[in-house]
Amino acid sequence: MCGRSRCTLRADDIPRACNRTGVPVRTINMDSYRPSYNVAPGTNLPVVRRADGSDVDGFLLHSMKWGLIPSFTNKTEKPNFYKMFNARSESISEKASFRSLLPKSRCLVAVEGFYEWKKDGSKKQPYYIHFKDGRPMVFAALYDSWENSEGEILYTFTILTTSSSSALQWLHDRMPVILGNKESTNTWLNGPSSSKFDMMLKPYEDSDLVWYPVTPAMGKPTVDGPECIKEIQLKTEGKNPISKFFLRKQIKEQESNLEEKSLFDESVKTSPVKEDPIKEMKVEQESDLEQKNSCDKSDEGSQPKRLKREPVTADDTGTQSFDKKGDDDKAKSSAYMLPNEENAKKQTKQGDEEFAADLKSGPDRRDKLDTILVKKKGNRKDAGGKQPTLFSYFGKK
C-alpha cells in the first residue's frame, strides 16, 4: 500500500515528470497545493488528467485531495479520505466504486518518493522508497467528483496498488503501481477503456528503486520537513530485517548454551571430587595384590606346595625322584604326578614296605630281598625311566 508520500515538486515540474511536454496544460485549483515532505490522505496533490470533452492533446494539472470519495456518496456524509486512498489494481474492473472510473477518469500522480512501514511486533519502522537518481516517480490513479450538501464539488483521487516486487517483499506485500516510461503513461491516460491495463499494472522490478530507514516521528502528519527523509541508523546491523531474525536466533542459542553450562557446573560442584585416576589405579592394584597374598596364605594351610620340576641330569639320576625329606616332600612331588606316576609310586611304596619287613626278618631272608630288588628295579624303570640303586634306600636313613 501507499499511505504517505513526498512531493516537493514545483507546479511546472509535474507535467514534465508525467511526460507531458510539447502540449498545452491548463491548471485547476493549484493554489491549494503545498509542497510537502509528508503528504497524507486528505492533503491536496497535483494530478495530470485529460480535459473533459476536449481532444486527446488537452490535459489538466489539477490539484485534488488524496482519498477517493465516490460520486454516489450521500451529500450529508462527512468525507473519509482514509477509506479509499488506495485501490487494488486487480479488482478495479469489478468493484462499482472504480469500475465506472476506468473509461474516462484515469490520471497520473507525480511524487519524489513514498514511505512504507515494516511491522516488528508492536513497533513499526518507516522506510523511504525512491529512485536512485532522484527523478520523480509516477503512479497510476483514478479520480472522481462528489457534491456535498452545500453544492460544493470536491475532486478526489485514489492511487492503484499491486503486489510487491521481489526486492520489497520483505517490507510489505503491496506497493503502488509505478509507470516507469512514457509509453506506459500515455497508455494509461489516452488508451481506450477496452485496453488491457493489467499488462502495465504490475510490480516495478527494475533495480534503480532504493530505500532506507527514516525517523518514526514522521508517522505524525504534522511532522513535515527534510528530517522526514533523513536516513537513520538502526540498532541492529544491516538494513534487511531478516538479519534481526538470525540475530535473535543466535542470542537464544547462546543463552541456551550458557544455561546448560551453568547446570553442568552446579552438578560438578555438588558431586564428590574424584582423586587422581592414576593414584586410584595404584591403590586398586595394591588392594588386589594384598587380597591375592591373603588368599595365597590361606591356601598354604589347606593345599600342599607345588615343586618346580627341574630337568633331569646325569648327576642326579636315580636320586632326584626318590630323595626323601619327610612327608612334606612326598606331598609336594605327588602334586605333579600323572595317573601312571601315581600307580608307580604306590607300587614303589608297597615294595619299600616289603623290603623293610625283610630287613627286620634277618639274613635268612636275603634271597627274598634279591627278588624284591629285581622287582622294584623293573617297576621304577617303568615309572620314569630311572635306574634306582640300593643306596637310594639306605643312603639317607
TrEMBL record:
GO terms for biological process: protein-DNA covalent cross-linking repair; proteolysis. Residues 256-303, 322-332, 342-352, 361-370 have a biased composition (Basic and acidic residues). The keyword DNA-binding applies. Keywords: Covalent protein-DNA linkage, DNA damage, DNA-binding, Hydrolase, Lyase, Protease. One of its GO terms (molecular function) is lyase activity. The keyword DNA damage applies. It holds the Pfam family SRAP. Residues 256-397 are annotated as: Disordered. It comes from the Eukaryota. InterPro entries: SRAP, SRAP-like. Belongs to the SOS response-associated peptidase family. This is Embryonic stem cell-specific 5-hydroxymethylcytosine-binding protein. It comes from Acer yangbiense. The lineage of its organism: Eukaryota, Viridiplantae, Streptophyta, Embryophyta, Tracheophyta.
